[in-house]
Amino acid sequence: MPRSLEIQTDSFPIAGTFTISRGAKTSADVILCIIRKNGFAGRGECVPYRRYGETMESVAAQIEAAKPLIEAGLTRKELQRAMPPGAARNVVDCALWDLEAKSSGETVIMALGLAQPQPLTTAFTISLGEPDVMAAQARANADRALLKVKVGTGDDESRIRAVREAAPNAAIILDANEGWPDETLEHHLRIAAEMGVALVEQPLPAGKDEFLAEIRRPVLVCADESVHHTGDLASLRDRYDAINIKLDKTGGLTEALVMKKEAQRLDFKIMVGCMVGTSLAMAPAVLLAQDAEFVDLDGPLLLARDREPGLRYTASLVFPPEPTLWG
């Protein structure tokens, strides 16, 4: 019996507004891919990202163009050559993983050799705003173990200090989303070190980050927009200490696993992150993140509603997915 492919779109309202240096959003617009065969159905979810030239329409069109190959039995290995990295390949790749698990009776956890995957401490995002507003957000979440704080203006010192004062015991990741100018970079890194920040994510624009190789970095610096797939890694060794692996960038779990292994070989620390999506998008990433140094998989916590069933979150922990959700 041949496969069938179904593409759906959905929009999940964000609880409040999610603001970074590039702007704000009030909903997570996602694409769901369902691949069926022999009575089994595999699902995946992706989040098209305008920063990478993606729209809901363009990603849906990419999937539609690959539909004949997918329905004809395209394997995950063949998919890596048939589609480029990005959200479209991610949603198909994750749906294929799920279909393989459902039809074989062997979960993705088993296929990856994860006998007992563990709950992980995930970051919780504090949106960019005025220092007093960010401090209030941090204070309301000060009992969380890890906060990811959105920054990315010409002067973020007051924001960093305000958040640290409001959450004195939390580990902190600063995410500048390419927003710090060269002339303030060293100052902000010094403040981050003074405030005990654990990691600074993508301070400079992708493609214009050579300055990171010329300065002393008193805090670990992580590539996000600068790194998409395995081929990007070698050129970043002089300027970054860590990389953020996101399935919507790598084009799925298959490539993400390869990328993670190579990054570890090159002595990068690993962060596993996400776009703002539902538990279905997070589920494969939870398995990828099992031995990562930093985990940022709070997408569902930022939404007013999630898919049912969703991932289990308790305080700062996110638990591995149940097969009824994915895998």
TrEMBL record:
Protein name: Dipeptide epimerase
Binding site for Mg(2+): D175, E201, D224
Family matches, as Gene3D superfamilies: Enolase-like C-terminal domain, Enolase-like, N-terminal domain
SUPFAM superfamilies linked to this entry: Enolase C-terminal domain-like, Enolase N-terminal domain-like
An example molecular function term from Gene Ontology annotations: racemase and epimerase activity, acting on amino acids and derivatives
Phylogenetic lineage: Bacteria, Pseudomonadati, Pseudomonadota, Alphaproteobacteria, Hyphomicrobiales
Cofactor(s) demanded: Mg(2+)
Provenance organism: Rhizobium altiplani
SMART domains xrefs: MR_MLE
One Pfam family named in its UniProt record: MR_MLE_N
UniProt-annotated catalytic positions: K150 (proton acceptor), K246 (proton acceptor)
